[in-house]
TrEMBL record, chains A, B:
Residues 45-64 bind DNA. It holds the Pfam family TetR_C_45. PROSITE patterns: HTH_TETR_2. It comes from the Bacteria. The keyword Manganese does not apply. Keywords: DNA-binding, Transcription, Transcription regulation. Residues 22-82 form the HTH tetR-type domain. One of its GO terms (molecular function) is transcription cis-regulatory region binding. InterPro entries: CprB_TetR_C (IPR054126), Homeodomain-like_sf (IPR009057), HTH-type_TetR-like_transc_reg (IPR050109), HTH_TetR (IPR001647), Tet_transcr_reg_TetR-rel_C_sf (IPR036271). It comes from Cryobacterium fucosi. This is TetR/AcrR family transcriptional regulator. The keyword Kinase does not apply.
Amino acid sequence: MNRAGRDDSREVLVIRSDARSMETRERILAAAAIEFADRGYAGASIALIAEKSATGKGLVQYHFKAKSDMALAIVRSAFSEAPFANLLGVDSAHGLEAVVASIRSVAGAFRDDVMVRAAVRLMREYHLIPVTLPTPYVGWIARIGGLLREAEVAGEIHPGLDPDREAWHLVAYFSGVQEISNRLSAREDLPERIEEMLARALVTLGAVAPDRYL
Amino acid sequence: MNRAGRDDSREVLVIRSDARSMETRERILAAAAIEFADRGYAGASIALIAEKSATGKGLVQYHFKAKSDMALAIVRSAFSEAPFANLLGVDSAHGLEAVVASIRSVAGAFRDDVMVRAAVRLMREYHLIPVTLPTPYVGWIARIGGLLREAEVAGEIHPGLDPDREAWHLVAYFSGVQEISNRLSAREDLPERIEEMLARALVTLGAVAPDRYL
C-alpha cells in the first residue's frame, strides 16, 4: 500500500507538515471512535474509517499499522488525556465536592463523548484485541481515594473510613450503574441513576451535609 | 458431516435413547462452557468442544446447528434453570435475609460455576453472537424487588423506600463489584468485596439490625 502512487505523494506532504499530520491523525481517530462505538472491535472496518475521515487507506496505515494500534490510541486518549483525565479532578473542587463532580462528569462523558464510549466498548472487548490495553479503573480509584482523604481531613465524611476501599466501592458501583443503564435503557436513564447512586453513596460515606452535593 | 460413517451410526443410537441423548447434550454443553469461559465466543472451537466432550463433530452438530445455539443454551441454562435460578430465592429465607443470601450465592456462582462464568462472558460479548440472548438483570431485579417488599412489610428496612428502585441499585452495585473484582483480581477478592458491599447496602436500605446479616 505504501509502495507507490497517490498515497505516497500525500504522505510526503504530511511528513512535511507536523500540524497537518496531527490533524489528519485526530480525524482518523475521531472516525475510528464512531466505528468502534457502533460496531465494536471486530466489526470496525478500516475502509469505512478511511472513508469517514476523508483519507485513504494508505494514510490510515501510515498513522496506524494495525486496527489494534487505533484501539490502543483511542483508549489512551479517552482515559489518560483530556477531556476525560480532566474530569477526574476539577481544579476548583476539593474533597467530597470533587468526588461528586468527577462521578457526574465521567457519567456525562460515558453518555455523550463518542471517544469515551468507544474506549469503554473496547475495554469490554479486550479479549479480542491483540495489544495490552491500560488496566482500567485503577487510576480513577487512586484519584478518588486521594479526594476522599481530603474529605476526611476536612471533616466532610465519617472519620476512620479507609479512603482507598471506599474509592474502590464508588468506582465499582458507578461501573455497574453505567453498565445496567446501558443494557436496559441505552444510557437514557443514566443521569437520573447517577443522582440516585450519589444519594446512596453519600449515606454510606457518612457525609456530614449530603444535601450540599445533590 | 452427517452423510456417512461412524457419526451417523452413533446418531441412530442416540435417537433411540432419549436419556442417552440428553446426557450427551449435557456433556457437550459442559465442554462448551469451559471453552466459552476460557476463550470467549469468537475463540471457542467446535472441534475442541467435540474432543473435550468425547463426541464427534457430527454429534455436536446434531444437537447444536451453530455455535450461537450452544451459546444461547448455556445462557438459558445458567440464568433460567437450576442451579442459578434457585439461588435467586432460597426457600427457607424471606425478606432481607433472602436478599443477602441471593447476592452471596450468585457471587459464589460467578466465581465457581463454569456454566455461569461462561454465560456471564457470553452476555458481555452479546454483540458478537447472532442470536437474541435473554435480557440480563431484569429477572433478578424483579426478584429482589419482591423480597425487599417482604422486608419492608416485616419492618426489616427503612419504610417508604421504592423496592424496585433499591433492587435496581443492588443489582447494579453487585454487577460493578464482580466486574472490577474480575478485572483487577480475577475474582480472587470477590467474597471479601461482596461482604463489604453488603455492609454498605444494608446501611442505605436502613436495615434495622444490619449485623444480623453479616
